[in-house]
From TrEMBL:
Gene3D superfamilies, per database record: Conserved hypothetical protein from pyrococcus furiosus pfu- 392566-001, ParB domain
Name the UniProt record assigns to this protein: ParB-like N-terminal domain-containing protein
Family matches, as SUPFAM superfamilies: ParB/Sulfiredoxin
Comp. bias (Basic and acidic residues): 162-172
SMART domains: ParB (SM00470)
Region (Disordered): 152-172, 213-245
């Protein structure tokens, strides 16, 4: 998310042209300000002769994500319309954008409001890391961690955290090592990067796990267990004398006749990644992928309703789309290979 998540309101303002929208069409404010608008700041904006930047509005709901004070100032000026830039997101995403915008510019957001915003984001995005939430709220990651611990009884727990870079890592480092051990035992020829990606750990960790397995030791060393074996590890495993636990089933993209993961579930998982959701190119990619999640029955229904005189054109278009996706996948693999070798 680092750099990616920052492509939120600033990115939207830069990439999209503003449109005039009726003030009466705006239905609600998505604001982290618990005390509501600051009347003195509203008057200051209303009396200013400077052109104010456009507000940010959620197209789905017409809720104002950024620009509450500008809207109130427009009413004071007697305006009936205001310039706005639109985005398309759910309410949880809208709140994150609102917090980021209020922290980044305009009237400073009080610390108490930022603390409350962090707790709300922890509830809506429990898989986000403390540093990721800190980058949104303008708090330190230690403060976010303290807020998470206080709210731990009220929020859903996730075995992984999404970092600012969009990578998912296990909260329990021991579990990540055990998963790497399972994968190496199942596929001893797998590359370090491949195992690291599946287990959610670094390549260096995978190398250490592989070396430990070659020495007949458990993937998790005593120093990393805090003096005791991690959950699910028996006493004999802690001593390094037992085999690695049986592998868990890992979803894979299918090749040939091998069953692969459900595309809908895969895209749903990608939609949780803030490094995709909060960049324009990421949202475009998710929309394109989402269009491919139509099930077999739906494809059959669509094919049965294609006009006969358009079958040839649609077949050509479908094959061109397939070719475009294949080229895109090849480009990603090539780029990933270059980065790995560089």
């Amino acid at each position: 998310m680092n750099g990616q998540l920052k492509a939120d309101t600033i990115d939207l303002m830069a990439r999209q042209s503003a449109q005039l929208v009726s003030l009466s069409a705006l239905t609600h404010f998505v604001s982290p300000r618990l005390s509501g608008p600051d009347s003195a700041h509203v008057r200051l904006l209303a009396e200013s002769e400077a052109d104010l930047p456009p507000i940010l509005v959620n197209r789905r709901t017409m809720h104002v994500i950024d620009g509450m004070h500008r809207v109130h100032a427009a009413y004071l000026r007697g305006q009936s319309t205001i310039e706005a830039v639109f985005c398309d997101c759910d309410e949880a995403e809208a709140f994150v954008l609102a917090v980021k915008a209020n922290v980044a510019h305009g009237l400073p957001l009080p610390r108490s409001d930022r603390n409350a915003a962090a707790e709300r984001i922890i509830n809506s995005h429990p898989e986000w890391s403390d540093r990721a939430i800190a980058s949104v709220t303008g708090l330190s990651h230690k403060t976010v961690g303290a807020i998470r611990r206080r709210a731990s009884g009220e929020i859903p727990h996730s075995p992984t955290r999404l970092g600012r870079d969009g990578r998912e890592r296990p909260v329990d480092a021991a579990e990540g090592r055990l998963q790497a051990g399972r994968i190496l035992s199942e596929r001893p020829g797998a590359s370090l990067r491949e195992v690291a990606r599946e287990a959610g750990v670094s390549a260096a960790t995978v190398r250490d796990v592989r070396d430990r397995l070659r020495r007949g030791e458990t993937p998790v060393g005593p120093a990393r267990r805090g003096g005791g074996a991690p959950a699910g590890v028996t006493g004999s495993e802690a001593a390094g004398t037992a085999p690695v636990p049986p592998p868990r089933e890992v979803a894979r993209i299918h090749g040939g006749s091998d069953p692969g993961p459900d595309l809908g579930e895969l895209v749903h998982s990608l939609r949780k990644d803030p490094s995709l959701r909060f960049s324009e190119s990421g949202r475009t990619l998710l929309r394109l992928l989402d269009a491919c999640t139509v099930g077999p029955q739906e494809w059959t229904r669509i094919s049965e309703n294609v006009p006969p005189h358009r079958v040839e054109s649609i077949v050509t278009a479908a094959r061109e789309c397939s070719r475009a996706w294949q080229d895109f996948a090849a480009e990603l693999e090539h780029r990933s290979g270059r980065q790995a070798s560089g």
